[in-house]
Amino acid sequence: RPPPADLAEVLISALHEPDAAGKTFEMFTLTGYPPKSSGLATSLAALSPDHGAEPSADRVDAAYELLQQLLPGEAQDATKLEMGRTYEQVDKGEVSRQRGALPTERERSIAAAAIAQASPKRQRFLGIF
Question: At 120, which helix (H) or strand (E)?
Answer without folding.
Answer: helix 120-126
